[in-house]
Inverse folding.
C-alpha cells in the first residue's frame, strides 16, 4: 500500500484500512481534512480484523483525537489497521494515508 483515501460523512467510523505491519520501515503518514462541521478521532488497532472470533479494540491516536480542524500525524510503530471516526457533526472527514515502502 502506498496511498489510500477514505471518508466518513456524519457520525460513525469510516471503512477500516488494513496496513502492512510487516513493512520495514513501517512508517505511516496521514492527514484528515474536514468539510462542514465534524469532530473526529483517528483510531488504530493491534488486532487482526479478519479474525471473526474477536472484536477489535480501537485506540485513539495520541494527538489526532477530538479535533474539528484539518490535522496530520503519523505512526512510527506497527499497527494492524486504522480508521477515522466522526464523533459528532454532519460534515465529512477525509482521511488520507501514505505508508513508506
Amino acid at each position: 500500500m502506498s496511498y489510500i483515501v477514505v471518508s466518513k460523512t456524519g457520525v460513525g467510523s469510516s471503512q477500516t484500512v488494513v496496513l502492512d505491519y510487516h513493512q520495514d520501515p513501517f512508517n505511516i503518514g496521514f492527514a484528515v481534512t474536514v468539510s462542514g462541521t465534524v469532530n473526529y478521532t483517528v483510531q488504530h488497532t493491534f488486532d487482526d480484523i479478519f479474525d471473526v472470533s474477536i472484536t477489535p479494540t480501537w485506540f485513539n491516536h495520541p494527538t489526532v483525537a477530538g479535533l474539528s480542524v484539518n490535522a496530520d500525524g503519523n505512526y512510527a510503530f506497527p499497527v494492524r489497521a486504522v480508521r477515522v471516526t466522526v464523533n459528532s457533526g454532519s460534515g465529512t472527514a477525509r482521511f488520507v494515508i501514505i505508508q513508506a515502502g
Remarks:
- The chain has one domain: 3-7+14-99.
- The longest strand covers residues 59-67.
- The beta strands are 3-9, 12-13, 17-18, 28-35, 38-45, 59-67, 71-75, 81-89, 92-99.
